[in-house]
Specification:
The protein is α+β, with helices and mostly antiparallel strands. The chain has two domains: 96 residues, Phosphorylase Kinase, domain 1; 165 residues, Aminoglycoside 3'-phosphotransferase, Chain: A, domain 2 (Alpha-Beta Complex). Helices cover 37% and strands 18% of the residues. It is built from eight helices and ten strands. Strands 1-2-3-5-4 form a five-stranded antiparallel sheet. It has a three-stranded antiparallel sheet with strand order 6-8-9, covered by helices on one side. Strand 4 and strand 5 form a beta hairpin. Helix 4 crosses helix 8. It is globular.
Amino acid sequence: MRCAWTDLPAELRTAITAHTGAVRDIRAAPGGSNAAFAATLTGRTGPVFVKAAPTRPDGRDGPQIRALRREIAVNPCVPEFAPRILWSTESGGWLAVAFEHVNARHADYQPGSPDLDALAGLVHRLQRTPCPPVVGLAIERRWAALADDVSAFAGGALLHTDLNPHNVLITEDGRVVLVDWAFASRGAAWVELGQTVPWLLRAGHEPAAAENWAGQFPSWTNAEPAAITLHARLSAIRWQHRHKNHQSPAINASVAVAQQWADYRMAGVPAAGSASS
């Protein structure tokens, strides 16, 4: 559960208001788990989106601060896609990062939605963008614990890895903005589509339709079918593991669609060998 503005250390709130002025309005962000605090704050400088996370009790960076530091590193390299970081501050054992506020709505992935074309345009542009050296996460390392060989996931493409509809914002003039770069990675370009197919299923697409949408991308059509099937199987295993440790409606839905896609793939395409669940 995220904390409220008043739960933040006084030192951090003072450091933040040194940038924003007195905070007149606070709108907490729905969803997300990569920051202990996430909200749009409005002060004399106007609205800014602020994410913050605490250090561990021993003073070391925890997973949430490491995620924020990755966003700070990659942000200057992806100005075409991401809201600009305005400032960051560390105080009271916390790191806070402020992004320019984007007045936009979340994308709609339902069948027939025109936002699917906007999503496709975003992915095409993303897959043409060179991966900057600051992106140090190798996508295959994030899957290695679940399989004996995930080398098919490796590559040199820039991957956002989480194109869920809450991270894809569409402005009134049709501009598409991609937020939450905490887990930007380097890997095979087709993996981005493998990460996106389950979100299409959650929005109501059948597996065949979701894969047909992915088929407009050369990275997908040129990928080894067994590698895609392995990704689907490992996605199901990963969500099953998460379900054992934490249950919620959102996780339950993710487990269901991941298994739906894995079953679809395994019914038609043999997978490369992987660790069992």
